[in-house]
Specification:
two-stranded antiparallel ribbon, DNA-binding, mainly alpha, about 40% helix
DNA sequence: ACGGTGACGCTCA
DNA sequence: TTGAGCGCCACCG
């Protein structure tokens, strides 16, 4: 059994709330948690995310619409997003502003 | 206890 | 416009 900080649990919880075909940003996620400057910590939490398939961390991208990163490989992230209905071009989300999901 | 690192974000030049 | 630097928080050794 792993003991996870409340902060991380929040991150995973909100990440799971992201609907299919939509994406969110580290900043929005951090904002939803309550701190807008936690973007880094959020990325850290997702990176260590012990519930990888349970938490769709691939739906979380940087505030600019860039892929950002992915523990399984950024390449994989792009493919998954494409399958979800999100088009990626040059590592950026197409119509990103329109696909960003806000809590 | 401390310092360094990291899937970021914003401001300034 | 593009490029570089600084600041933010949380986690690991």
């Amino acid at each position: 059994m792993k003991k996870i900080s409340a902060f991380r649990q929040k991150v995973y919880k909100f990440t799971q709330l992201i609907p299919k075909g939509r994406v969110s940003t580290y900043k929005e996620l951090a904002l939803a948690i309550g701190d807008k400057n936690l973007a880094r910590a959020v990325g850290n939490a997702l990176n260590a995310n012990p519930f990888a398939p349970t938490v769709p961390c691939h739906r979380v991208v940087s505030s600019r619409g860039t892929i950002g990163g992915y523990a399984y490989g950024e390449n994989k992230k792009r493919v998954i997003l494409k399958k979800e209905g999100v088009t990626c071009q040059e590592g950026r989300i197409k119509d990103f502003s329109t696909k960003v999901y806000k809590f």
